[in-house]
Amino acid sequence: MDNRPDILRIENLGKTFSIGAALFSRPLTLTALQDISFTIRQGETLGIVGESGCGKSTLGRCILQLLTPDSGRVLWMGEDIASLPKEEMRKRRRDLQIIFQDPLASLNPRMTVGEIIADPLRTLMPELDAVARRAKVLKTMEAVGLLPEMINRYPHEFSGGQAQRIGIARALITDPKLIVCDEPVSALDVSIQAQILNLLADLKDEFGLTLIFISHNLSVVRHVSDRILVLYLGRMVELAEGDDLYEAPKHPYTRALLTAVPIPDPIRARQRTIDGLEGEIPSPINPPSGCTFRTRCRFAIGLCAEERPPLENTGHGLVACHRWKELELQPGA
Amino acid sequence: MAGITGKDAVLSNYAVALEAPKGRSLTQDALRRLVANKAALVSIFILLAIILIAYIGPFFLPWEYDKIDWSSIRKPPDFEKGHYFGTDQNGRDLLARTLQGTQMSLLVAGVATGVSVIIGVVYGAIAGYFGGRLDAVMMRFVDIMYALPYILFVIILVVIFGRSPVLLFVGIGCLEWLTMARIVRGQTLSLKQREFVEAARAGGAGPFAIIFRHIVPNLTGPVVIYATLTIPEIIITESFLSYLGLGVQEPQTSLGTLISFGAPVAEAMPWMLITPAIFLVAMLLCFSYLGDGLRDALDPKDR
Amino acid sequence: MDKVLSVHDMNVTFALHQSEVRAVSELSFSLARGETLAVVGESGSGKSQAFLAIMGLLARNGHASGRAMLGDVNLIGMAPDALDQYRGRDIAMIFQDPMTSLNPSLKVKTQLAEVLVRHQQMDERKAQTEVIAMLERVGMPEPVKRANAYPHELSGGMRQRVMIAMALLCRPKILIADEPTTALDVTVQAQMLDLFKSLTNDFGTALVMITHDLGVVAGLADRMMVMYGGRAVEKGTTDQLFYDPRHPYTLGLLHSTPHVAKRARRLDPIQGLPPSLEHLPSGCAFHPRCAFRFEKCFVERPPLAEIGGGREKACWVDGPLQRREVA
Prior knowledge:
The complex is a heterotrimer of chains A (333), B (303) and C (327).
Chain A: E1 6-19, E2 28-41, E3 45-49, H1 56-63, E4 71-76, E5 79-80, H2 86-92, E6 96-99, H3 113-124, H4 130-143, H5 160-172, E7 178-182, H6 190-207, E8 210-215, H7 218-224, E9 227-232, E10 235-241, H8 242-247, H9 252-260, H10 266-271, H11 302-306, E11 312-313, E12 317-319
Parallel strand pairs in A: 3-8, 3-9, 6-7, 7-8
Antiparallel strand pairs in A: 1-2, 1-4, 4-5, 9-10, 10-12, 11-12
Chain B: H1 6-17, H2 26-36, H3 38-60, H4 94-130, H5 132-147, H6 150-161, H7 165-191, H8 195-202, H9 207-215, H10 220-243, H11 255-262, H12 271-298
Chain C: E1 3-15, E2 20-32, E3 36-40, H1 47-54, E4 62-70, E5 73-74, H2 80-84, E6 91-94, H3 108-120, H4 124-137, H5 143-147, H6 156-168, E7 174-178, H7 186-203, E8 206-211, H8 214-218, E9 223-228, E10 231-237, H9 238-243, H10 248-256, H11 295-299, E11 305-306, E12 312-313
Parallel strand pairs in C: 3-8, 3-9, 6-7, 7-8
Antiparallel strand pairs in C: 1-2, 1-4, 4-5, 9-10, 10-12, 11-12
Helix pairs in contact in C: 3-4, 4-6
């Protein structure tokens, strides 16, 4: 699978937000992303996991240029789309689409399902006439498991799972190559979650999509992803193949995340000990020096506070930890 | 999925032929809730009745609003002569004048409200959507407009448009949009955070397509509610200006003018006050009940 | 086994414009001292409404009938004033979003001390000492500093700890937790589940854990009750339901839950959508989505019946379903 071409390359991406900018107060700077670099091969699913405030959604939006990164490059098929003028970028949006977390909030309540799904076509495929647009809408609705009769109904008449199918149809209608899925199932009921995950897997095969799957739920990410990127406070912590990451986590944070995942299996859940990850995530406005994870890491040493660990190649992936070679971490659960 | 295949052709035919059932839009839902609200429903009927009477009534009256009946000046209701509600100090039929006055009040209120809605929505949505420095400058301008004395503007407008009440109220609409702009800006600020706006951006829509296709339709609720509350406000403004002699010019009249003539002589000639007052009060009450009903219907969560 | 709560034949209905919707139907269960009961179901299963009814916290158009016996008092239909005597003291509830239950303009310690002052007539100073001790017990870092904070100054996890501390101040017999960890990060969720486990051991509090996430209950619950369409469809011990589910819905939930240790190419979800309570299907409410259904399921609703081993299910299919292997 590794001879597939790279489709997207992120280089040293950084993004900060300033908050509380008022007339007489100095704004605070929140570093949402720092020094993010990775590549995605065509047809691959890259999972991005992390807890709240780790910058995973910001990363997804920076890739799609819904947010403008402050530094670094986003190379889409070799072309830096972060530096494109707006008009040029608009043309690339046919290839790059997004699915949102809250299915109902992501649908305009005043538009019918047909209008919502067709909306990207108006600007991205203006060559289609009304009949062709409608035919394309119906075809896409069929692909995501929506009945054609639903075309004139309104979003509030649908349940969360069906609304998410509408959102997927909208992302799919321009025949994109890459779809960023931002927590696409976290707002859904368990039985519906599984339906949507299967649908995404089918669509990926059918249309040869490349997926970026953002989630806080490690079980879901592991289920869908080929490779997994772990973020903590806006920095890359570890990047590896799903199985390697799960069986041999190299970073203490990855391991802590893995042990914290609830296991739907009573005997094992009772047996296992949680890796006592103390405390909560520090504020991204004032992150710890050196390694940002050191305040919660039980392996932290003096060096961790002084120097930021570089991303190192482990042979199976990348890890940012000063001590990854000496630590023998047990697999997750 | 590129290229036209046989299946696509079939689908195209299907797309043309498909008669999918219509869904319930939010507007239809809101209308249903509005109709279920008795006070609002009665208000709508009374308002429609007043509008109908005001515009059709004069054709059935024996007297026109500017016709002087020299034989009956300041007379109470007299059915024989066709002065069903009496006459004024110049011998003109009071019912005819009240209907003409109602027409005028409704017209200026409608015009002024329409103008203020259009300016307020566009201004507020643009300020709210673009945000940042543009928003700051635009909203400071609104603040400055608020601070300037209203009546000064009105006097300037009277000097400019003096003879044309409709133009005058276009001008007043141009002053009334400030609050509307603030409301719309606030709503836009929260709407633009919603994911469907981001979805539209991901779909390649430009800022104005987003504002007018995705944001403005979702402002219907607050805008309609505020507009129904603006109409009575402008009717009162008009009455007040007419009272000061700045409004409608003779022989045309408005409810405010009629009341201003009727009020000083209310003890001696009560009919001169009562007729226009009933119309004015009925309209104001109906608009405010309608506004309440609309708020409940469009914002069911708040109940 | 001494029972702290036993519910018999509870129904909860909501009056809508022209119709009436049944959110909970004929629900019966009991809760023993110190035990943890997981109530599992999807949105619209009635799991939250059942416990809001017991707490007397239904929305204004809601109505509950039946019995919920706390010792020998029936909480259903009790006047709000009388209920206040038990709420907080004997039975407490915490919610998914702690912010809605905390007054944003009062300091944490003031709000918590108020509970003790009201229920146990403790004086203010003693109450505050007690509050700080309790905050420490629920694992609040720097309890003295946090006690002086306002709710918005705390993180989500800390707020949930405040809620738990508040609920436990009067040492209630029963703690009802409605999706308490859903809004929290995984690492904080793990800390919270640990906390719940140690609290039930230390205080002997019976815990009701309302959730849609089977992963959350696996390590925590002694018994489970699965709800669908307003009814309990299966009851039993956690191990029974996880390793030998007898109701197809329970089985479907298990198969829908992704497992971090096992990567399957496809999940095996339940087909279709959860029913709307306004239009429940005929017969067994689950039959439109059920892989095991037969003719009888369309017309006749299966009663919740004993099937041996202390467990109950509401399904016409006999015997074990496809077994899940013990991992």
